[in-house]
Amino acid sequence: MDFPIFHLDFMGNRLLIAVIAILHVLINHSLAVGLAPLVTYFEYLGWKNKSEELDQFARRVMFVGFVITTSLGAMTGVGIWLSASLVSPASIASLIRVFFWAWFVEWIVFVTEVVLILIYFLTWRKSLRSEEAKRKHIKFGVALSVFSWITMAIIVAILSFMMDPGSWNQTKSFVDAVFNPVYLAQLAFRTPLAMFMAGAVVLLLIVIFTEKGTTFRTSVTKTTSIWILSWSIWVVVGSIFYYNVIPDMMVNNLSVAVGTMEFSNWYDSLLIALGIGVSSIVAIALYALTGKSLPLAISVLPVLLSFSLLTVFERAREFIRKPFVIGNYMYSNMFRIDEYPLLQKEGILKHATYVKHKEVTEENMVEAGKDIFLLTCSRCHTSHGINSVVSKFQNMYGSSELNSDAMVAYIQGMHNARYFMPPFPGSEIEMKALVSYIQKTKEYPIPTEGAQESGVSVSIQRGAQ
Ligand code: HEC
């Protein structure tokens, strides 16, 4: 392991990435990828029907998208890569090597998208000056929609590659990495979902921006409902397509992913809840189609439901990939599968750069154990915070004295006990050191510090200088 270990012992490292990433995806899908084409469509309809009111409405909706995507959206976008690089530098390093050109193109496409959104929103009023200007402006809307979609399409290649790299594991080819077995299905799911979510947002904005009882409100509500209903069919088709390409092992993980372990029996009810979520939005859209005005309390529901749905979906996607961070290549603890035989024989400390001790001895059991905990468990567990390893063992063995032999035996087979956990990458003595550390930290519950707090130790191997 060549990186110092960043660690947050209260909230856990997984949650740090999850909060930033989910916020970003919610904004990206609903207010960029989905909203740009919907607003452009409204603008086009306004131009075609010579309705200045519709044009103004489209501009106000775009204002919301513009402000949120260029502030919170952009910040969380950068935040994802920052937090992921802190928490899992080895996997990001691998992904950069595989997807270098994709990222390079992504950067250009993203900058273009930002320039286009600035032009599109800031030149809106000017576009009203002439027929020619309006036509040109609508073309910018189309270009913005295309570029927003391409940024998502590139990132989805990386996300789906992490789930199942397919033949890349043998060929190591860039094209195989991009067109991995999950890619097109995931894109076919996210695209209509983004459109669907944008429709939900606009349904709410209609209630805020337009006057009750007007024919204008009725007509935009109808247009938006038709938009939602047309895309909902593709959301369903896309989700079935997607579900079918997820590797079997991951489908098995799904019940733990949707709830946590204790809630895995609730899995069926959660799936039903998801079904109810989609059907409720469809029902609301159908109701709105009749031309009746939606009360604010109801029009907020599609936003809440579709945002919760995407949140559950992202959590599930992140979880079911486990024990891998990159399918069949690298485990979530950042050790590659092909490193395992050597490390299990010689130990991880010997091959790690930023550890205090290169070898476990009777005297350094606890100190070495701390480094082993950081290296092998801390990407998913804390010692005393969320998903605390101490309380996990206590739940299993009761809160009295934890039995060392039973713990070592558990760690030896942890990947069989729970297939979302990677096998222990180190040697047997390192398991014992880890157990000593867990027992010690149970007795004296001090949060485990990451490298950002405690600094790094670089130990030079005996004999080497
Ligand atoms: C890839 C992520 C990951 C890694 C790495 C990981 N775990 Fe876990 N572990 C989990 C998850 C997720 C759970 C279940 C949490 C829940 O939903 O309750 C879990 C549960 C456990 C449990 C309770 C199992 C049960 O049946 O009740 C123990 C004990 C445990 N982990 C120990 C460890 C130890 C020790 C390490 C390091 C050697 C480790 N884990 C590494 C993800 C991981």
What would your notes on this structure say?
The protein is mainly alpha-helical. A hairpin with a 3-residue loop joins strand 1 and strand 2. Helix 1 (about 15-35) crosses helix 9. It has a two-stranded antiparallel ribbon. The relative contact order is 0.11. The protein has helices spanning about 15-35, 35-50, 50-85, 90-100, 100-120, 130-165, 170, 175-180, 185-210, 215-245, 250-260, 265-290, 295-300, 300-320, 340-345, 365-375, 390-395, 405-410, 415, 430-445, 450-455; strands spanning about 325, 330. The chain has two domains: about 15-330, Formate dehydrogenase/DMSO reductase fold (Up-down Bundle), CATH 1.20.1630; about 335-455, Cytochrome Bc1 Complex, Chain D, domain 2 (Orthogonal Bundle), CATH 1.10.760. Heme C binds near residues 380, 392, 414 and 424.
Topology:
Layout: H1 13-33, H2 35-48, H3 52-87, H4 89-98, H5 100-122, H6 131-163, H7 168-171, H8 174-178, H9 183-209, H10 215-245, H11 248-258, H12 267-289, H13 296-299, H14 301-320, E1 324-326, E2 330-331, H15 340-346, H16 365-376, H17 389-397, H18 404-412, H19 414-417, H20 428-443, H21 451-454
Antiparallel strand pairs: 1-2
Order of helical and strand elements: HHHHHHHHHHHHHHEEHHHHHHH
Distance, first to last CA? 20 Å
CATH class of the largest domain: Mainly Alpha
Task: Give start-end ranges of low-pLDDT stretches.
Answer: none
In the CATH classification, which architecture of the largest domain applies?
Answer: Up-down Bundle
* Average pLDDT reading: 91
Catalogue the ligands: heme C
Total helical elements: 21
Radius of gyration: 26 Å
Overall body shape: elongated
Say what the CATH topology of the largest domain is.
Formate dehydrogenase/DMSO reductase fold
Overall tally of domains: 2
